[in-house]
Amino acid sequence: MEQGKLYFVKDEFYDRFKGCGLLENKEVINGKQHNRPCCYLFKFTQNDTGIYWMIPISSKVDKYKSEYQKSINKYKMCDNISFGYVLGEECAFLPQNLFPITEEYINNIYIDKNTSLPITIPADLMSELNKKARKKIRYNQQGKILGMSNIIKIYNELQNDINKKDTN
Fold first, then answer.
1. What does the alpha-carbon distance between residue 88 and residue 35 come to, in Å, rounded to a whole number?
2. Residue 52 forms beta bridges with which residues?
3. Whose CA is closest to 88, among 108, 109, 66, 112?
4. Mean pLDDT in residue range 66-93
5. Shortest CA distance to 141 belongs to which of 155, 127, 123?
6. Partner residues linked to 57 by β-bridges
7. Model confidence pLDDT, tens digit, residues 99-120
8. What are the residue ranges of helices labelled H in 8-86?
9. Which residues does residue 9 pair with via DSSP β-bridges, in sequence order?
């Protein structure tokens, strides 16, 4: 799994962590369910062996632009939402909904059907997202709950899974 790429999360992850505030946005387009949600993957620290972090992506740009603007008006900044392009379409990247994950819950990588290559995001957007996400993770580790997902509960359960595997 590579930082900066986009991945899809298995349904089993959402089933296991139901009630943890995870953003589920499987879309039905033309009567067909699409492989959603799509998330940007990054690594918080190299010490977190086996734990990755995901930032969900939404196509509901107008909704999130409104939320972004409210935050800018009130706080003069917005650490919850960023915007970028995926396959030429503007998308909202949602650090407010970030969550930890392990490789077993990754379904597959997002491939551009025109080039057959994995989709990557630009370095400047990657840097912005990583900065916002790291800030949210650090605050949550300090007991200040920021964001929509219960990332500490999910992280602890995933870490327990890894520890059990390591002792077997």
1. 19
2. 101
3. 112
4. 94
5. 155
6. 93
7. 999 999 999 999 999 999 999 8
8. 11-16, 61-75
9. 106
